[in-house]
Write the structure tokens for this entry.
Amino acid sequence: KQARQLENELDLKLVSFSKLCTSYSGARDGRRDSSDTTPLLNGSSQDRMFETMAVEIEQLLGKLTGINDKMAEYTNSAGVPSLNAALMHTLQRHRDILQDYTHEFHKTKANFLAIRERENLLGSVRKDIESYKSGSGVNNRRTELFLKEHEHLRNSDRLIEETISIAMATKENMTSQRGMLKSIQSKMNTLANRFPAVNSLIQRINLRKRRDSLILGGIIGICTILLLLYAFH
């Protein structure tokens, strides 16, 4: 009976806790849609209510955990052997309910904290924007001039870097072309040095061919004369 009573109380508390989280998010969204300067109605009271309800639910969960522990001790006692199966089933059902309520509470609490943290961050950003908008015209003008000057300096640096890059690329190309010209010149010199040697070699080959032809002609003539002399004698 104590467990069922605590479970009913927890169910009602968790429903109210979930509604509080939903209303907090809706109020924040309505504030952003209506106006950035409109103060949130009962924002701090909702935060206090959240803290209070969270503490109450945690206390109820602690009490229900204690009841479940006592029921577990009772089912393990030696005086109730015939009722053990039914009691274990009832205890398991109460444990499942406790686990579901604990999971739902932590999930709702985490969602609430995430929404509040997000809204605090957005509020800080909105304050920064409002403080910037509410600044004097002179300060805004100076800021704009500083920003323009900074942009001009960045453009000048970029142009200088591009000019340096073009100069470096031109230097590399000229160095490469100079190397190619040197290679061509060396090849031309090599060919020029080789041509006389080739001509000399060709002349030597021609002279050797003529000498071989003369020797062969002389041998053929001598052989012919010897054959004629042998034939007539």
In short: Residues 137-232 form the longest helix (96 residues). The mean pLDDT is 78.
